[in-house]
Structure formats: C-alpha cells, structure tokens
Design a protein that fits this description.
Helix content: 10-25%
Order of helices and strands: EEHHHHEEEEE
Number of helices: 4
Radius of gyration: 29 Å
Low-confidence stretches: none
Distance between the termini: 101 Å
Shape: flat
Mean pLDDT: 86
C-alpha cells in the first residue's frame, strides 16, 4: 500500500495550467526619460513688472546642525560660529549663525519666484548684514523688482534686478542685497529694448 508522510497531496499545477502573465507585469525595460514631458517651472521675463513685490514661501528655521555643517564644509573656522563659550564671551547668547549661511538661505528662498526658470546668475551687489541670527531663528524673505530690460546681445532673454530683504521671526532685517539674473522670455524678442528702473526703497 502506498502512503505519504504528509498525507494526501494535491498535484502541483503544471505550466500549462498557469494563467498567462499580463502585459502590465512583463518586463518592459528601462523607461525612456527623454520622452517624458517637461513641466515648466518658474517665472518668465514677462511675468515681472517694475516695482513688483513678492513674499517668498515658507521660510526656514536654521539649526546648529545647519551652522556647523555649513561652516566646516566651507572651512569657516571662526570660533564665534563654532564655540558657544567664545560667542558668549563676545556678548552673544549662543553661537552666531554663519552670515554666509544666512545669505545663501535667503537667496535659496527667492529662487522659486525669481530665477527657477533658468538663466545665468549675474551677481550680488550692495549686500548688507543686519541683526545676527542664532540657532533656532527663522528666516523669511521678500523681493522687489528694481530694473528690467531685454538683452541686446542675447535674443530671447531679459535682465532682471531685484532687491531681496530677509528678516528673522521678530521682523528684524538680517540681510539684504541686490541680485541680477538673465531670465528667459516667453514671447519672441522685441526689436526695441526699453530699460526700466524703479527707485529703490531700502529697508532698515
């Protein structure tokens, strides 16, 4: 008499009995990323107006970890940024956040509204640092369009200048600066290129 240790067993289904794999589950290879449509981001030249003001999104709370990482990565070994006892001896309640970290953060907060659509960065002028920032402080920023004109040498782009002011959670100015970028035009370049300029209003 034939028997099995595990009792009666059902025969395993054969390959012929298995349902065919759906086309969705079959290997289709690597995706062709070049065929994916690009989603436009950022403002074009025509989206800006002389004197226009923009409050940038979110803000950013800067931590001691941000400060230490930035200072060591940039070899900024000033003890006021890294030694809390030294900073206190200088009259500060804590280590002072590296001002270049504050500046870079302020520029970063403005990118989505000002320069995300692309175009070479042409520089920062008139950069003034205000109240020092400490770990746990929050920075927010806003900008105003100061100048704009289409480029005479590069058809299809304009040159826009903004003044950006960054403040802490108490409304005190921590840094302000003037930034200029090339900004792509949405429309075909005009035959004439008017230059526009607004009188600056400094924030103290």
């Amino acid at each position: 008499m034939h028997s099995t240790l595990n009792g009666p067993s059902d025969p395993s289904p054969s390959a012929a009995d298995m349902p065919a794999a759906s086309s969705a589950s079959q290997d289709v290879g690597d995706p062709d990323f070049d065929s994916f449509p690009l989603m436009p981001k950022g403002n074009k030249y025509e989206d800006f107006e002389l004197g226009q003001r923009m409050t940038h999104h979110w803000g950013r709370t800067l931590t001691q970890a941000d400060n230490v990482s930035f200072s060591t990565a940039t070899c900024a070994w000033l003890p006021v940024h890294l030694n809390v006892e030294h900073a206190r001896n200088q009259g500060h309640p804590d280590t002072v956040l590296n001002p270049m970290l504050v500046l870079c953060t302020a520029v970063g907060l403005s990118v989505e509204d000002l320069s995300e659509s692309g175009g070479p960065f042409l520089g920062i002028d008139d950069c003034v640092f205000g109240s020092p920032m400490y770990p746990g402080d929050t920075i927010t920023a806003s900008s105003q369009v100061l100048q704009m004109r289409t480029s005479a040498s590069k058809p299809g782009v304009g040159i826009v200048t903004w003044r950006t002011v960054a403040t802490n959670q108490h409304g005190q100015s921590v840094v302000q600066f003037v930034r200029t970028n090339l900004v792509a035009l949405r429309a075909k370049p005009a035959t004439t290129s008017p230059s526009l300029k607004v009188e600056e209003q400094h924030v103290h």
